Amino acid sequence: MVPGDQQGSAQQGTVEKSEAQWREELTPEEYHVLRQAGTERPYTGEYWDTHTAGVYQCRACGAELFTSNEKFDSHCGWPSFWAPLAEGKVRYIHDRTLGMDRIEVRCASCDSHLGHVFEGEGYGTPTDQRYCINSVSLRLVTSENAAPEKAGPAS
Predict the structure, then answer these.
(1) Hey, what long-range contacts does 91-98 have (CB within 8 A, 24 or more apart)?
(2) Which of 58, 61, 110, 132 is catalytic?
(3) What pTM was estimated for this model as a whole?
(4) pLDDT, tens digit, for every residue of 78-129?
(5) Is 76 annotated in the active site?
């Protein structure tokens, strides 16, 4: 079942920045999508057809949101996932803009717009949900690019 009108509660470690700080840190396209709930054009984003293993982070704050294990080919032009990485990583808002009735998905850490979640479209996924996420909202950290584990003292 698609999450409802949850506004989400503030988490510890919530990222708070002024709009001026966001404008300074993000590219114009990132700012438009992440902070103004824009949408990138389909089939143009960096990750819509990526099959690389790794973790997808919020491009604005670095919070880990999705993994390649839940990514699937929906052929919609945007990266699609059947679930977030864990409960509480994203929050949901009932979105009635543009004459549609949808569920918006936002980063729970910095409240940036990620995309929307849809249900009951008939995809053969464990949840029958499609988290349709803008590539520009994400940054893929592949296994080989992950930060190395801190080693103990040398002997």
Answers:
(1) 91/6, 91/7, 91/8, 92/2, 92/3, 92/4, 92/5, 92/6, 92/8, 92/117, 93/5, 93/6, 93/7, 93/8, 94/4, 94/5, 97/37
(2) 132
(3) 0.83
(4) 999 999 999 899 999 998 877 778 899 999 999 999 999 999 999 999 999 9
(5) no
